[in-house]
Amino acid sequence: MKYLxxxxxxxxxxxxSVQGVHAADEAKPNTPPEPAKRxxxxxxxxxDAELAKKYPKLPPRTAPKLxxxxxxxxxxxxxxxxxxxxxEIGDAVIALWHGNATGALAFTSDDNHWASDITRxxxxxxxxxxxxxxxxxxxxxxxxxxxxxxxxxxxxxxxEIQSHGHRxxxxxxxxxxxxxxxxxEYAAPVEIIEEVTGKKPRILAYGxxxxxxxxxxxxxxxxxxxxxVPNDAATISYMGIASNTNLFLNPTAFINTLxxxxxxxxxxxxxxxxxxAHFHGLPKGDWEALxxxxxxxxxxxxxxxxxxxxxxxxxxxSRDTAKLKVTKxxxxxxxxTLTDDMDDDYFDHPLTIKVRVPAxxxxxxxxxxxxxxxxxxxxxxxKKFALVEAIPDRGETTLTP
Length: 401
Description:
Elements lengths: L3 H21 L17 H13 L24 H5 L8 E3 L8 E8 L7 H10 L6 E4 L7 H12 L3 E4 L15 H19 L5 E3 L7 H4 L5 E3 L26 H9 L14 E6 L7 H14 L3 E5 H13 L1 E7 L4 E6 L11 E6 L8 E4 L2 E3 L1 E6 L2 E8 L6 E4 L1
Helix pairs in contact: 2-6
């Protein structure tokens, strides 16, 4: 294989780097920053007072207006229930991942280094328009006017511009600063990116792989660390999603562990889970060969959902809090309602609903609140099912043949 030498030379570095991240355990939420350890000068106190007005502490959110879910070690869901097919005609089940995929793979690109790779990213977007990419950018000294134009170019290609903080602060940068200054790190990019692109960023990539989850949770639906293993679907730490730069060093393991029950990454299987991979610009070498061999086949087979981390965070948290209820079940019509606990202003990705339909249905049409939504008929073990794309809290969905 073209990348065999890369795997051989990088194996030792991969092992040692992941072990080091395990010790840091960056996927878990961090504690709030300590108060300022020194007395502020009058000028500093004045500046901090202005920052406190601009970036005040926000009130806690409650359902059904949650922005994100808290860290947990207990399963939020039973993945087997979401992987299963409905048993009786009219029964409905929320699929584990979009399109009824078994696992999910998401990409992000950090810092503003990708500006020099804009031509290569354009080629990537044209070759793989269905994949997308979330580019996480800094908005302070490293941001240039040329970057803004590149942001717009990437958006036009279907990619996303998300946050990497204002000053690329990691957890250590928060020590000894006031809360208002800490909040600026995560709040300022929301304003700046929205002003430039017209779209509010929804996810954050922590600077240096670590950060302050308690503050970031006020501004983003999810945040990404650098804890280098896949994520268990039932216990994803949405404000500390584990991510790695090692996907192309061992693509078989990092992908197959999501799709079978045997492959392990550092001693654990992640069947049904999420692998997040991040880069600083496109990987060097023949990355297209890696895509074509390891990612495209399961993606085209519908086993692997390859998308942005934003979509994964929306789908996962909506799924984890969703309530699905069948409201009508006749030979000619099936209807259901779908709700969740998340803020509808931030969560608008549809969930895939598996509905068992009568055997004599030759086609299926689905409408949510009177508007047609995507739906298709599939078969499993000789039985017919509809896969329906419905967004929580948008009204009743009806299915007809």
